[in-house]
Amino acid sequence: MKKVLVLYYSQAGQLKRVIDSFISKLPDEEIMVDIKKIIPKRAYPFPWPFYEFFDEFPESVLMDGCEIDDVKNIEDDYDLIILGYTVWYMSPSIPITAFMQSDQAKKIFKNKPVITLIACRDMWVLAQEKMKNLLKNVDAKLIDNVALTDQGKGAYSLVTLPRYLLSGKKNPFWFFPPAGILENDIKSASRFGKRLNEALKNNEEKLSKPLLKNMGAVNIDGKLIATEKIANRSFQVWTRVIKFSGKKYSLGRKISITVYVGFLILLLLTLVPINIMISKIINKFKKDKLNSLEAYYELPSGR
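-> structure tokens emitted (303 positions)
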């Protein structure tokens, strides 16, 4: 009997739906799937209150975990671990970060093959790079990565995603598409579980090689990588400003957050459109470099 552990934290519930589809064709009489949710001691609300949403910004960027409960009834040994996570401010969500930094993670992940499963908007590359370091720190072996992204690409998701997180509304409005991952993309994720079922029965997980190659596991737009890096540098500055202004949920932080949100809105209305136009021109002359970056960040599974 092969044993698979699925670990995840899903605040809004979308990631859980992705996981349910992903593993729907995985278990049978020869393969057991153990699903465990990571539970923070202080629950994160959904939808988010405005200031609480932005108050998690510094801790997300600095990867300061929260207090979490130990995962109960974990088996002694697993043949494969599937780690599902969402992205908060270009980092793995705080509960996931907290678990990966725990003593329990060191025991569970040591020398185990791991597949990461991401559900988020289309800017997840830097979060996955941070996840690679977290997995390395617990001696895990990353063999695959699957990323399902929101249907509202690029600049659209800068509006549709915050609207969804702050209000719970996913419907289309004006010229904006719906928020969240397409239903067809969620349903088609079952193909990965079917492939893993076959691979586990053939002991392929022991080879420390990707099991999901040529299955459309990830699809990176190289033009967004530079945008992610620019935004991440900005995050590093504002993180320290907000954190310096006071403790979580304090008046000082609220003042800093208000200034920061104003700064973001100003960027969206001015520099972001200009940057998009300039990037389109520059990227025409950097196709080889973009292709190289895409190939690197799409590892280990690839398209």
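The mean pLDDT is 86.
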